[in-house]
Amino acid sequence: MSEAAPHLDPDRELRAFTVFPGRPPVTVRRGDPAPFGWWPAVCIALVAAIDRIEYNLLAGALPKIQEEFGFGDAAGGAIATAGSLAAVILLLPAGRLADTARRNWTIAGVVAVWSLLTVGTGLAGSFLTLFTVRMFLGAAGQLYNPSASSLLADFYPGPGRTRAFGYERMAYFGGLPIGVIAGGALAETVGWRTGFLLVAVPGLVVAVLVLTLREPDRGTGDRLTLWYRRDGGAPAPPAGTERRADSPTPPPLRTQLRELLRIRTLRTVVTGLSILIFGLGGLFYWMPSYYNRFFGLGEAEAAAVAGGSGLVGIVAGIVTGSWLGDRERGPRKGRRIAIGGAGLLFGTFALAGAVALPVLVPQALCFTLANFGFAAALANLTAANADVVAAERRGLGFAVLQLLVTLGGSLGPWLIGLASDATGSLRTAFLAVLLPLLVGSVVVLRGRGSYDADAAEAARRSA
């Protein structure tokens, strides 16, 4: 991002920057949380939403699919696990690609491939075919994240960063209950195969929309954050540009990973989010079946209760958490990490109530509150991850985060399914996620002290 000096405003509240190579300078107002508008955040949110809606159609329709193909809970959980594990193999290369290639093209290509694979789910004629297609589709569905997260960090400086990542996380996890509801409803009305065929169409539309995003210079959001935090008379931070052909060759992947894992706050965020997704992914996958078996609800009603409770909690949690995370009032020490840890702890206790209560209405209320706490934590911890990794390594940093989060999420459905088969009770199986969530809350809260130093170092390197 280079500064266009002739456009300097006399009161120094407005400054023009060359942000998009080959495009005219963009005038930025100091302190603007979205200097390039909210469309990039909305577009990335659409990608996240359509991904999770499709992925979780399977959870809502699972009873019908099990009835048709005749497999048990352990095999049902293994479908989700296989796709997540396949994604792990490709995430680190995707992270390096996010740090070197045009990110909008990468995202559009991933979504297009994913949409085509979606059709294969609806056409599967056996459990083996279904399992194989879902494995490849699960891998493709995760690969947009490093490029998308790197783009969001460049489009949005500090005052808007939690909101931008919050929209993406709200769409990602909001798509989860929407998919569950749609899967259950379609399974009962038009058949489970139809849902997968229908969702492929909006997926292709979203792939085209991603191409409307321009590629900004890397580190744009960090440089604007530094300018925002200076007094009104201070100069803007030094100009930066994309890596040129004569720039030093990046170090080997192993060296880059070692450098990333030395960042204490990054380790904290990765640990906390991995444990959170372990619990949340497993719960959402099996909660419709839980309502179906324990409360005697039909597939559509069970999916509606599970999905509706989750959606309300996620939206409210993201909105509240994003507002709190972007506030600049009072002491700033580790604000986003502190909010993330507190949200995770609140969600864990609410989830304990959801598991313990045998009455539907209070149980659903506790499940809603659990999702509220988890969603508030997600928005802040994801933004904190962007804050503490320098721009030139941010794609790989998010790939590391997504890799370990994916591993955690992949274990949730499978382990709960195994515990359910072993004990004969999904309620007993749900208890397995409570202790890891409590440990994750403590780990995140203890990591608050390193955030400010790590964020300052990342901003210095990005500038």
Word description of this protein:
- The chain is mainly α and 463 residues long.
- Helix content is 74%, strand content 2%.
- The protein has 17 helices and three strands.
- It has a three-stranded antiparallel sheet with strand order 1-2-3, with no helix packed on it.
- Helix 1 (39-69) runs antiparallel to helix 7 and helix 2 runs antiparallel to helix 14 (394-423).
- The longest helix has 32 residues, at 158-189.
- Mean pLDDT is 80; it is low at 2-11 and 231-247.
Q: Topology, pairings included?
A:
Blueprint: E1 2-3, E2 14-18, E3 26-29, H1 39-69, H2 73-98, H3 103-123, H4 127-142, H5 145-155, H6 158-189, H7 192-210, H8 220-229, H9 253-261, H10 264-294, H11 299-326, H12 335-356, H13 360-387, H14 394-423, H15 426-430, H16 434-446, H17 451-462
Antiparallel strand pairs: 1-2, 2-3
Helix pairs in contact: 1-6, 1-7, 1-10, 1-11, 2-4, 2-5, 2-14, 3-4, 3-5, 3-7, 5-14, 6-7, 6-11, 6-13, 10-11, 10-13, 10-14, 10-16, 11-12, 11-13, 12-13, 12-16
